[in-house]
């Protein structure tokens, strides 16, 4: 719902004017460049700057923050409503009432190069052609920018004797140690934040994640007609490692170590069976690790943080986190919709408030003079 539009110079005037400037800059830049190919300077850091004719650089980080500022939700905002009218309410006495900022790391892990890297190195970029991996990374990085979290993409070496997904436990353990983070939020390349303006602190409150929870994951879909799928050796539903919230607790490093060493059969006999067969590290976690760390693991229902719209089994429709196991092209669609909401809201407010007199009333439909 929009604020009141009474008066053409409401408190939103400055915000609208700022957003208008940002939009003029963006669209002016896009118009100035060739429509199909946009060239950006190559940089070794995650701080990307766009420059025009040696003018003062404008940080893309600041542009993103400005665009999403009007949409952001507070960490302990009691209620969150979405476009279909659904309302989500926080429990009483939420644990996280302030922004965690750099205490949170949004983490990507991969052994593959980004699909758009080759074009980028040639000085070319085409949104329509980027692969799903880049689409997911764009979503995750943008989310971190909006909320002031740290972000890293760790490009890990492949294992020789096991599936590449086994990079997760060691990378999580190392990043937790090296960065002194309170939380690491990890997503697979085909998983996305459904609402870029909703902070992880709010979700931690909603899910009631407390100081004992070393790791949080959502369950996989489970169908009584085919109970053998997505179940561990005790017929318990597996949790999906495509989205994880890892918290620095006394139990976290022992848990990650046990998980990392699981396929070596040091602590868990026959865990080596999951070196390569599906679901690799996920099956090992479900079959063995979680039974030693039950009280330190938070399992979310599949509907909360797994799946995507149209999945009927277990209502896995990605309420807050979406995981596109199959149609990965939808990742870009999710990102595009989030970005267009942020870009067009300031434009809508300009018209709603008649900022700068963009709307003129024609009282009579006749040619004047």
From TrEMBL:
InterPro entries, A to Z: Glyco_trans_34, Nucl-diP-sugar_transferase, Nucleotide-diphossugar_trans
Domain of life of the organism encoding this protein: Eukaryota
One MF term in the entry's GO annotations: glycosyltransferase activity
Gene Ontology CC, one term: Golgi membrane
Pfam families with a match to the protein in the record: Nucleotid_trans
Domain Nucleotide-diphospho-sugar transferase: from-to ranges: 166-296
UniProt keywords, alphabetically: Glycosyltransferase, Membrane, Transferase, Transmembrane, Transmembrane helix
Gene Ontology biological process terms in this record: protein N-linked glycosylation
Transmembrane residue ranges: 12-32
Similarity field: Belongs to the glycosyltransferase 77 family.
UniProt name for this protein: Nucleotide-diphospho-sugar transferase domain-containing protein
């Amino acid at each position: 719902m929009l604020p009141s539009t009474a008066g053409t110079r409401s408190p939103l005037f400055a915000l609208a004017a700022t957003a208008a400037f940002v939009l003029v800059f963006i669209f002016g830049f896009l118009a100035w460049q060739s429509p199909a190919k946009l060239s950006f300077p190559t940089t070794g850091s995650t701080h990307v700057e766009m420059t025009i004719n040696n003018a003062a650089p404008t940080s893309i980080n600041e542009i993103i923050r400005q665009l999403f500022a009007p949409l952001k939700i507070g960490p302990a905002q009691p209620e969150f409503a979405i476009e279909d009218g659904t309302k989500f309410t926080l429990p009483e006495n939420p644990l996280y009432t302030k922004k965690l900022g750099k205490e949170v790391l949004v983490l990507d892990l991969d052994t593959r190069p980004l699909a758009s890297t080759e074009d980028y190195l040639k000085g070319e970029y085409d949104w329509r052609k980027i692969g799903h991996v880049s689409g997911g990374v764009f979503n995750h990085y943008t989310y971190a920018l909006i909320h002031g979290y740290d972000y890293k993409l760790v490009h890990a070496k492949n294992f020789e004797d096991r599936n590449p997904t086994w990079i997760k436990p060691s990378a999580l353990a190392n990043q937790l140690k090296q960065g002194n983070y309170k939380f690491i939020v990890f997503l697979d390349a085909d998983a996305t934040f459904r609402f870029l303006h909703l902070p992880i602190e709010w979700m931690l409150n909603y899910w009631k994640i407390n100081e004992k929870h070393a790791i949080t994951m959502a369950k996989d879909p489970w169908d009584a007609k085919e109970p053998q799928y997505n179940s561990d050796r005790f017929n318990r539903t597996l949790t999906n490692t495509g989205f994880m919230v890892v918290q620095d607790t006394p139990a976290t490093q022992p848990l990650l170590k046990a998980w990392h060493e699981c396929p070596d059969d040091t602590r868990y006999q026959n865990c080596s069976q999951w070196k390569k067969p599906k679901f690799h590290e996920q099956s090992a976690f479900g079959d063995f690790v979680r039974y030693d760390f039950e009280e330190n693991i938070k399992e979310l229902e599949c509907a909360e943080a797994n799946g995507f719209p149209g999945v009927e089994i277990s209502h896995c429709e990605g309420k807050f986190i979406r995981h596109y196991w199959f149609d990965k092209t939808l990742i870009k669609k999710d990102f595009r919709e989030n970005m267009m909401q942020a870009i067009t809201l300031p434009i809508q407010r300009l018209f709603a408030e008649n900022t700068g007199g963009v709307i003129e009333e024609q009282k009579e439909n006749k040619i004047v003079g």
